[in-house]
Amino acid sequence: MSDFLRLLFSSLETGSVYALAALGIVLIFRTSKMTNFAQGMIGTINAYIAATLLIDFGINIWFVALIAMVTAFLTGILIDTIIIRPASKVNPISKQIITFGIIMVIVGLLPYISVESLYIPRFIDSEYGINILGAPLRYNTIFIILLSVALMGGMFWFIGYTKWGLATRTTASNETTSKLMGVPTKTVTMVSWAFAAILGTLAAIFVAPRVSVQPNMLLTVQVSAFFAGTLGGFNTFFGPVIGAFIISFARNFTGFYISDIWGNVIVYTLILVFLYFKPYGIFGKKPTTKV
Is residue 213 a contact partner of residue 48, using CB atoms and an 8 Å limit? Predict the structure, then answer.
């Protein structure tokens, strides 16, 4: 029982990180009609900024995280304004290649911040926690899960029940029609990039204590987030989030109960088989063509 609960808590923590990254990806996909392969690197460069402030100036992790959210917000706005918006009329494949260019630019900038791996501590020291039926549950894990769920719940409420949320859904549905209806689509996409950058940065700060701040720190998270989007369905905002938790649970339980070596292979093979029969994901629908 303790092993089951330990895996459950670990899966919820990991799934929360995957879900934040996946929500950022689907937000850009639906409002800008492009796959943002630079989502992980945008989070990484802001994690570098946070770690540098923490180490060089001795600022505590809570305040550093807030500063990183601000820099992430500005990063998203700059990328949309300077790079994405001028390229709005290029074809979808070119847009995706542009995001590879953003990766190369960020990789080139990282050495100017630091050439070494940096350390970011947990928000709550790992020695503090509670014990549930023999399974340890750290307060930091509870914090990550609750903050992620609250943040994603707030975003779903915002998208579903506010005027700006309606503008976001309208832009995601059809940008041309949205413009004719007077929806400020440029502002919607700019804010989407900003919030996607915040989600990616938060995911980076959450995983930093385990992997340290280095250029590939979000590689596994980003790959899992893309798989989550494909599994849950890119046509919805909530599908990738659910897909993220499914992948996290499947990887942890398969790795523990079946094979630590072949666990990931089994999970991703099963996902590929599932997508063969349902290519648009669990909640995705086949696009309709109007004539």
Answer: yes
272 part of a folded domain: no
Percent helix, strand and coil across the chain, each to the nearest 5? 75, 5, 25
Please give the Cα distance from 167 to 186 (Å, whole number). 11
Burial of 76 (C-beta count, 10 Å sphere; 0-12/13-18/19+): buried
Q: Which of 66, 71, 4, 75 is nearest to 36 (CA)?
A: 75
Mean of the per-residue pLDDT values for the chain? Answer: 87
Q: What is the 8-class DSSP label of residue 238?
A: S
| Angle, CA of 246, 248 and 253, to the nearest 5° | 95
Kindly report the backbone phi and psi dihedral angles of residue 264, in degrees, each rounded to the nearest multiple of 5, phi listed first: -65, -40
Cα→Cα distances 210→119, 150, 256, Å: 9, 23, 19
Helices 185-211 & 163-173 angle (0-180, nearest 10): 90
Domain span at 60: 1-214
The residues with which 213 forms a beta bridge, in sequence order, are: 118
268 domain-assigned: no
Question: Against a cut of 0.70, is the pTM above it?
Answer: yes
C-alpha distances (whole Å) from 269 to each of 55, 162, 274, 276 are: 42, 40, 9, 11
pLDDT tens, residue by residue, 257-276: 887 777 788 888 888 888 88
